[in-house]
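for the recovery benchmark. tokens below, seq after
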């Protein structure tokens, strides 16, 4: 195999990895991708767009004049998020409230320290605690707001 063939193999794998979620969101829900256009973005979007469109049966690719920087622009606009979590096997009851509150407070402190180390001030930091809770006898957790008063 030549170097070029190996490189094209990697590109083919990358293209297929990008096709899978598109198929799951469209064809998996009964939509015909051939009746839609593919919008490309990101630094390598133009390199992959035509091959992905071909694989999905699309005949139109839309390339915005700033397609190469749209991902970076979106990242610049996105909120900075830091998450902390610890495992806990507590029964949610009056008796466990103090321990749960202390654990949430400790996690909030860790998040605040981490965000401050990145240059954020207290007024810029918004903390939103969540608890992964399960009904007794189940193994599927539900994400519930851990904010006071909710």
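predicted aa per position
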């Amino acid at each position: 195999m030549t170097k070029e063939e190996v490189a094209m193999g990697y590109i083919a794998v990358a293209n297929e990895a990008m096709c899978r979620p598109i198929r799951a969101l469209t064809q998996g829900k009964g939509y015909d991708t051939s009746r839609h256009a593919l919008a490309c973005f990101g630094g390598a979007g133009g390199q992959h767009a035509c091959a992905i469109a071909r694989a999905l049966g699309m005949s139109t690719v839309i390339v915005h004049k700033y397609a190469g920087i749209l991902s970076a622009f979106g990242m610049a606009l996105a909120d900075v998020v830091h998450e902390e979590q610890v495992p806990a096997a507590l029964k949610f009851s009056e008796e466990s409230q103090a321990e749960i509150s202390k654990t949430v407070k400790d996690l909030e402190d860790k998040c605040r320290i981490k965000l401050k180390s990145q240059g954020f001030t207290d007024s810029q930091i918004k903390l939103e605690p969540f608890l992964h809770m399960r009904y007794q006898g189940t193994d599927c957790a539900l994400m519930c707001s851990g904010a006071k008063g909710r």
